[in-house]
Amino acid sequence: MLSLLLKGGIATAGAVAELTLDPQLKYWVLLPISVVMILTGILRQYVQVMISPGVKGQPRVKLTEGQYILKAQVLVGNGSNITDKSFQERKEYLSKLLASGKYVARTKAAQDGSTPNPLTDPGMSDAMMSMAKGNMASFIPQTVIMWWVNHFFAGFVLMKLPFPLTLRFKEMLQSGVMTADLDVRWVSAISWYFISVLGLNPVFNLLMNESVDDQLGVMQSQPAQEQDAMAQPAQVEATMKSLANDITIAQHECCFDNVEKRVLKLYA
Q: Is 190 exposed, middle or buried (0-12, 13-18, 19+ CB in 10 A)?
């Protein structure tokens, strides 16, 4: 049922209906939906932090493998910041070391020549369980709030947007009160719920403190670390050989060569 009042009686056929909203709608419909959405979003963030797994360490061989790959990438990208002698020494050392595959972290299954089963991997099981918990923590509150809005506030028109829109926005903004003669700028209660779901992330970022943000960042970085840990030794070895080839063919040009002449030429 629409809680609104038509201006000037019933609108004529084909004309755009001009409506006057009950001022109490702001306090009994618009404000409760907005407050519940914000509080639920904050609670969901804290629940996801609590159910997230802790930071897991990696074996020493895996850390050594990653450090040598990073060292080679840094040498290729920033080799111009060191002298030619230092670059050549690092180039010779890393090219031989990476090409030999000495520091590739090989699991027991890889050494035996068998293919590891991801279903029996405890790390994979923990990652799948963590993903399922996160999905449930997001799905259940949204389902409950959607039922609450649809049950108690169906058919309410809450506000009128101050800018014009095309008819393509009518279905998105007027869910539950689809009428042919209603201006597209009017927003229904259910549509306001969907807009809040999609647009409250900046509000959550403003309300969340730094500690929660840091914990959420750790949660988001866990899948990338797990993917790195699950990388096959053959893939890592191919990456190392590719970096060894890049280092071998890299041409060095030190940024300190003739720096005095370049500075004098620039400021002379």
A: buried
Q: What backbone torsions phi and psi does residue 188 show, to the nearest 5 degrees? A: -90, 170
Burial (CB < 10 A; 0-12, 13-18, 19+), residue 64, is middle
Answer whether residue 51 shows pLDDT above 50. yes
pLDDT digit string, tens, across residues 205-258: 787 764 444 444 544 555 555 555 455 777 888 888 899 998 988 888 888 888
3-class SS string, the chain: CCCEEECCCCCCCCCCECEEECCCHHHHHHHHHHHHHHHHHHHHHHHHHHHCCCCCCCCHHHHHHHHHHHHHHHHHHHHHHCCHHHHHHHHHHHHHHHHHCCCCCCCHHHHHCCCCCHHHCHHHHHHHHHHHHHHHHHHHHHHHHHHHHHHHCCCCEEEECCCCCCHHHHHHHCCCCCCCCECCCEEEHHHHHHHHHHHCHHHHHHHCCHHHHHHHHHHHHHHHHHHHHCCCHHHHHHHHHHHHHHHHHCCCCCCCCCHHHHHHHHHC
Q: Where are the domains of the chain?
A: 4-267
Q: Residues 6 or more apart from 44 whose CB is under 8 A from it?
A: 137, 138, 141
Q: Which amino acid is at 130?
A: S
* Tokens standing for residue 238: 């191919």
